[in-house]
Amino acid sequence: MKLWIKISLLAVLVVGLATGISSAILLAGARQSSVELAVQSALLDLGLRERAWQNAMARNLTVKMSSRAQRSLAHYHISQYGDANTILLSGEDVIYNRTSLDPQACLPLSWGMKEHIIVEVPGQTLLITGSYMEIAQTPYALYLIRDISDVYAGIRSLGLRFALVGAAVLAAATGVLILLVRAVLRPVQTLKRNTGLIAGGIYNRPIVIKEKDEIGELAADFNKMAEAVGAHVRELEEEAARRSLFMAALTHELKTPMTAISGHAQTLLRTRMREEEREDALLRIDDACTRIERLSQKMMQLLVLQRGEDIDLRLQSVSDLLEIVRGACAEKLSRHKLTLQIENSMENLCMDTDLLGSLLINLIDNACKASPVGGTITLHAAGNALTVIDHGKGIPPEELSRITQVFYTVDKARSRGAGMGLGLALCETIAKLHGANLEFESEEGKGTVARVVFRTAYCPLPIA
User: Fold this and answer.
1) pLDDT tens per residue, range 306-322
2) What interhelical angle do 186-199 and 149-184 show, nearest 10?
3) Beta strands 385-390 and 447-454: pairing type?
């Protein structure tokens, strides 16, 4: 059953109960008022007849009058002041009674009291009023009987009118309630449609509800939920796309070292070679394996760091960092017959030594590839920047803004000598995690300056 039907039925039930209870209370009040009015009228009429009869008896009654004469006088006067519904008794003696009722059986009387009772007889509702008195030491009971069936008939007629009017009002109220409930619940239909869109994967269509009530607040919460879910889904999609791109690019990048490994391995297996040639082939295989390992490690580092995970930054010695970098680059520099010149005027720096060391090693590695044999590379630490300077072939201006893109290489024709395309992307990510900017200045034929500029000196953790 739909919500608007449930609410409408409950509202109609409440209205019906309220109308019925109100009508019943009004009818009960009207019935009581009508009966009380009939009783008061009957008692007033009884009092008038009683006084008139008593006065007439007082004027004509004498002391010498016998009881028979007194009874005749009482009958005479009651026939003058009474009617067919008047009854006069004296003890067990029925002086005047034109009805078939025995009033004493229905309404016993006490001295000086006017009393009444309502009795049901076949086809009638009778109101019996009575008064008890004594005249010349003779007790009398005067009764007046009235048919009040029309009073109860009027109450029943009024109840029927109430029922008809109540039914009409309830029917009209039912129609109005249905219209109002459907109008009030119309925003719920809007919510239902939009939640269906969210379930279908559409998160960028906000729910527009103008009402500033609970439904409006619920719509705002739904919009926030859809926005959060959409953002999370986009993050997952971006992560999946990034992983897919990394794997595709890595597969492509692995072709060159794998081809070299396969070629040298086949040569070793099928060709007789001198010892020097065998050692050279093995060295080349080892270089290719090292290249693959380095490429894989860089890719994994970049995947993890680009998720935006926080790192623990502490104040640590810059001298220790530079010595670690010198030792890591020694073999590479020796192979290219290059000199690393370190200039340091910094004491401590807020950093992760491993990550920042990886950044500097990548910059020096690129400088080695660009520098001529016998050249010098400078690693300079001063102020708020770490700088790597080479005097190599430089980078063309049109390529300078793209060198930090993932898997982008400046010299695609000689990618083996120009870098793997992952190093500078990793460097830029590490710099951002340290609150720093990675900046490049280069001129073809004169060299390149790579600078890591730290934007703040604040450090959340103390010196290690």
Assistant:
1) 665 567 788 999 999 99
2) 40
3) antiparallel
- 239 confidence band (pLDDT: 50, 70, 90): confident
Say what angle helices 423-433 and 275-305 make with each other, to 10 degrees: 40
Residue ranges in 185-274 assigned as alpha helix (H): 186-199, 214-270
DSSP of 55-116: HHHHHH--TT--HHHHHHHHHHHHHHH--TTEEEEETTEEEEE-SS--HHHH----TT-EEE
Both structure tokens of 237:
């999609």
Strand partners, 389: 378, 449
Q: Strands 339-344 and 376-382, how do they pair?
A: parallel
Contact 128, 117 (CB under 8 A): yes
DSSP for residue 64: T
- Contact criterion met (CB below 8 Å) for 259 and 252: no
Which residues, 6 or more positions from 216, have their beta carbon under 8 angstroms from its beta carbon?
187, 209, 210
CA-based nearest residue to 434, from 335, 311, 291: 311
Question: What mean pLDDT do residues 275-288 have?
Answer: 83
- Beta pairing partners, 135: 138
Q: CA quadruple 159, 165, 170, 173: dihedral positive or negative?
A: negative
Residue that is written with structure tokens 């920042």 in the block: 356
CA dist 459 and 456 (Å) reads 8
CA dihedral for 46, 48, 54, 57, sign (positive or negative)? negative
Q: Where does the pLDDT of residue 12 fall: very low under 50, low under 70, confident under 90, or very high at 90 and above?
A: confident
Residue 226: closest CA among 208, 242, 243, 239? 208
DSSP-derived secondary structure letter, 311: -
Q: List, as own/partner pairs, every contact residues 75-80 make where C-beta atoms lie below 8 angstroms and the sequence separation is at least 24, other chains included.
A: 77/53, 78/53, 78/142, 80/56
The 10s digit of each residue's pLDDT in 113-152 is: 789 999 988 888 999 999 998 888 889 999 999 999 999 8
